[in-house]
Amino acid sequence: MATTKIYIVYYSLYGHVEVMAREEQRGANSVEGVEATLWQVPETLSSLILQKMRAPPKANDVPMIRPDQLLEADGFLFGFPSRFGVMAAQCKAFFDATDELCASQALAGKPAGIFWSTGFHGGGQELTAWTAITQLAHHGMLFVPLGYTFGSSMFEMNEVKGGSSYGAGTFAADGSREPTELELQQAFHQGKYVAEIAKKLKN
Question: Which cofactor does this sequence's record say it needs (predicted)?
């Protein structure tokens, strides 16, 4: 049986989405016959601006992706922080650069999930997901929502938890909050879930 390739493509400014992405990768790689790879989208901010924003260095073990490399994957998980209720401009710039792939519908029929980070409850936990789905729809990709497959943990009310039926999520607050164990479990579950679906579609 051929290997199912999952590309986890993300942008992370302060590291919250990166932490989630690594857990998504672990979940996807837990599925037999699946090979999940991490990719970063290119940064659009200058080094001076990043320095002034006190942004940490990018992960040196995760390569930058080019739009044409999306053709190699059988399925995707796209991760990004929220900016005013939509994906960060770096991710939007990357999707804008996929116009040739969109014109040829080269990615049509490939499954894709999304995950994200927002500042707080009103920071776009669901709106960021809704506005991201349009990118997938124009490519003809198959959006794979998380649904309520995470079981009773979807209804957790005793602690703050990001995410929804659209995908896994976390809260960054003022930047000091890190993804919780429950949020990481949800990310792992999503990675596994999307990988299983991609594997079924491929085979």
Answer: FMN
